[in-house]
Design goal:
Blueprint lengths: L4 E6 L13 H18 L4 H6 L2 E12 L8 E11 L3 E10 L2 E14 L5 E2 L3 H7 L2 E2 L20 E6 L14 H9 L3 H6 E10 L8 E9 L2 E8 L2 E12 L9
Parallel strand pairs: 3-7
Antiparallel strand pairs: 1-3, 2-5, 2-9, 3-4, 4-5, 5-6, 8-10, 9-12, 10-11, 11-12
Helix pairs in contact: 1-4
Pfam families: Acyl-ACP_TE (PF01643), Acyl-ACP_TE_C (PF20791)
GO molecular function, one term: fatty acyl-[ACP] hydrolase activity
Keywords: Fatty acid biosynthesis, Fatty acid metabolism, Hydrolase, Lipid biosynthesis, Lipid metabolism, Transit peptide
């Protein structure tokens, strides 16, 4: 049975939007911090991983959002690695308040050789301490019919990659992809809608000094996104939205 880990976190004002809901990038960071803490507690944390010339990367993620945590909410983040084979693993996260699961997240992880920048095998001792179910084939979280088609975009926004966007794996931190996809939708849409599910596939690394383009196609309450550098698609996303009925009054 997979080894679980739990930690508590209180949502701070700087982690939230104007509606006092935690933002998607911060939700991802808070969840990943729980996995970082679990790895450290099992002596396979960042220092150990980097000492072997390796780095964890996320290939895909899926989110089911029943309710977004709000400012001052104290939530429990629960995480475990459900299944793994020699190259891939699926990590689960639950964000819980008062025994209610507010958010469920799954992420498909792999290990990157920091020199060759290619995927490499997960060390046996990592698997042993995490105790996931051993499988021959790890099921993908996304399928190809989720993505945008053609070259007709509702909106295109350009962003410059900044020094502080780069993490210890020497590429853009995953949380920025969530920021770029949602920010491109604009203030009016974001103020009047909330995400209920999201699937992301990370295709190619994006580095410092790159310029990225965030573009999307919108079909009522479904938006399909691409994050690109030049002709290369760095990531794709599919978000299902729900219209808000209790939007606060504020000037933007």
């Amino acid at each position: 049975m997979a080894k679980t880990f739990t930690t508590e976190h209180t949502i701070q004002y700087y982690e939230a939007d104007v509606k006092q809901h935690v933002t998607l990038p911060m939700l991802i960071n808070i969840s990943l911090e729980a996995s970082t803490q679990q790895a450290a507690s099992l002596h396979i944390g960042e220092e150990e991983v980097h000492s072997r010339g390796l780095g964890w990367i996320i290939l895909e993620s899926s989110l089911d959002i029943h309710e977004m945590p709000r400012v001052h909410d104290t939530v429990t983040v629960k995480t475990w690695v459900e299944e793994a084979n020699s190259f891939f693993s699926i990590r689960h996260f639950q964000v819980i308040k008062d025994d209610d699961v507010m958010v469920e997240i799954k992420m498909l992880f792999a290990l990157l050789d920091m020199v060759s920048r290619k995927l490499t095998r997960i060390p046996d001792d990592f698997i042993e301490v995490l105790e996931p179910k051993a499988v021959k084939r790890v099921k993908r979280l996304a399928n190809n019919d989720m993505w945008a088609e053609g070259d007709d975009w509702d909106h295109v926004t350009e962003y410059a990659v900044r020094y502080n966007d780069i993490d210890t794996n020497l590429h853009v931190n995953n949380s920025h992809y969530y920021e770029w996809t949602t920010d491109a939708l604009g203030v009016d849409f974001l103020a009047n809608h909330r995400p209920v599910s999201m699937v992301v596939r990370f295709e190619h690394e994006i580095g410092v000094r790159d310029t990225v383009v965030s573009r999307y196609q919108k079909d009522e309450l479904v938006t399909k996104h691409q994050i690109c550098t030049g002709d290369t698609v760095g990531a794709q996303a599919n978000i299902v939205w729900q219209k808000e009925t209790d939007v606060p009054s504020f000037k933007m």
